[in-house]
Amino acid sequence: MSHLLFTPVTLPTPDGHGLAVGNRAFVAPMCQYSVDDLDGVPTDWHLSHLGALAAGGFGLVVAEATAVEARGRISPKDLGLWDAGQVAPHARLVDFIHGQGRAAGVQLGHAGGKASTWPMLPGSDDGTTIPADQGGWPTVSADDAPVMPSMAAAGALTEAQIAEVVDAFAGAARRADDAGYDVVQLHAAHGYLIHQFLSPLTNHRTDGYGGDLAGRSRLLREVVAAVREVWPDSKPLGIRVSATDWVDDGLHVGEVAEVLRDLVAAGQVSWIDVSTGGLTDGSTIPVGPGYQVPLAQEVTRTLADAGLGEDAAVVSTVGVIVDATQAETILATGQAHAVSIGRAALVNPHWAAVAASQLRVPRAELPHAPQYFRANF
User: Fold this and answer.
1) Which pTM value belongs to this model?
2) Where is the NADH:flavin oxidoreductase/NADH oxidase N-terminal domain (predicted)?
């Protein structure tokens, strides 16, 4: 029986060798809000969380949104890679993931005007800005307006400050390499800083970083170029995008696909993870099984029409992908090259091994840690 989900996939690299990933079930980066010392340093919780996913058989395990500077954290309890002292604790995560035979990735991001919010934990007033007298800090964005109604107004970045943010992404990428990560994913989705520049909902600038698509995508292009310059040619560079804002006057998939096509054609980006939303209240989003897959399919088609197939960039899709048959169908119909599993992986860190069993992968080839052999997946 064929099972595309559990065939290897190679994320292309500028040096031509690529990063071999054992299967096409990836872990979507998911914030854990577990840095109790508020210093951005990974803890035992992160080792336990990511380690379980690696042992559970996912081909690529991606650490949560990791801030490139302290003010870019979504919450005070987020991970960071803005300081050399954070590298060794990240390397501890990478070493364990590699020890399970999996590829290790990290998502680098900056929350912009959606930073300094309460962590999304039980009893927390998530989605609102933390007051300064309770540990909050001033935020920055494309504009000086609140990114969301529940959040405080941000400070519009000057062009000089934008350059500093670009440098911060490059610095974090260097530290990610020092930690041993195999792939970096740039966070350009979910209403965070790069998305705030991309979307006409939050970018009303009149300088070279606003206006038409070329202006609104300038920050993204500069971040990609700066990171690619310091990120080794032997390692792939990925990006997560919100392909649409789900409102008429927002960002649309055609625009996003155009920018991605250019980045792939330039050999800068070789993994695209397609998500959506993050700048509205969500009332217009048709959430349901695989609801974002058509957006990934459109990105895949745009790349293919430009002669850019899987050998140029791997496209993964995410969003209410919960079972093996659903995931296999997405791949078999060519809608994406891989799937990113989020909440379903929180429910069951062994999702990949279970899915492989359901797809009749031979028992000796099931992608779980050998210590779990007696589980009879």
Assistant:
1) 0.97
2) 5-359
